[in-house]
């Protein structure tokens, strides 16, 4: 993910003045961007000590918590938007987190590396696991628990009763609407309760 360009595309999806929860917020740069450009408020959740410190240095409200514990500390409809950028592939209970997202927020926005991107397909055809900008780890040394595809997330969303609001791919900050399952290294979805 090209943080600045991709974050700008994501920020356009967030309504001005929204109350936002960013799951796996990293160093808080997206929340800071949303605060500065869209007038948003909210919180980030992050586990990594150094990233929590970076959030605090940016003036971003952050809670240190493991997302595998769920979102029980938040009430229903506590947020306008819940972000999960590059986090789903790290979670064991993906379906639960999708349900928790639409429980605590009106809109969910997720992104993840799209394993069906054409360079990844070529690597697999050659008998190798892909190592790319979106999937930068060797198969034996990755924090990813799973890989996903644009097309598979659409199926999962329907099975979970989620209504897709918007779906597209990203490549270095450039939005890809035509054949994103093949052409985009990163998948992006906006959804709500069905």
TrEMBL record:
Matching Gene3D superfamilies: Vaccinia Virus protein VP39
UniProt cross-references to SUPFAM superfamilies, sorted A to Z: S-adenosyl-L-methionine-dependent methyltransferases (SSF53335)
Species, as recorded: Aquariibacter albus
Protein name in UniProt: Methionine biosynthesis protein MetW
Domain of life: Bacteria
Pfam families for the chain: MetW
Coiled-coil segments: none
Lineage, uppermost ranks: Bacteria, Pseudomonadati, Pseudomonadota, Betaproteobacteria, Burkholderiales
InterPro entries (UniProt xref): Methionine_synth_MetW, SAM-dependent_MTases_sf
């Amino acid at each position: 993910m090209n943080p600045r360009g991709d974050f700008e595309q994501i920020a356009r999806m967030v309504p001005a003045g929204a109350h936002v929860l960013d799951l796996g917020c990293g160093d808080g740069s997206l929340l800071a961007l949303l605060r500065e450009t869209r007038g948003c408020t909210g919180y980030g959740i992050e586990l990594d000590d150094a990233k929590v410190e970076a959030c605090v240095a940016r003036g971003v409200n952050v809670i240190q918590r493991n997302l595998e514990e769920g979102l029980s500390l938040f009430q229903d409809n506590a947020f306008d938007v819940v972000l999960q950028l590059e986090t789903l592939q790290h979670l064991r209970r993906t379906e639960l987190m999708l349900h928790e997202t639409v429980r605590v927020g009106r809109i969910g926005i997720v992104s993840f590396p799209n394993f069906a991107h054409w360079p990844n397909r070529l690597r697999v055809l050659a008998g190798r696991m892909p190592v790319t900008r979106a999937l930068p780890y060797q198969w034996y040394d990755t924090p990813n628990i799973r890989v996903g595809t644009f097309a598979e997330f659409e199926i999962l969303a329907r099975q979970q009763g989620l209504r897709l609001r918007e779906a597209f791919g990203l490549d270095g900050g450039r939005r890809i609407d035509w054949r994103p399952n093949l052409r985009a290294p990163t998948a992006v979805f906006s959804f709500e309760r069905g």
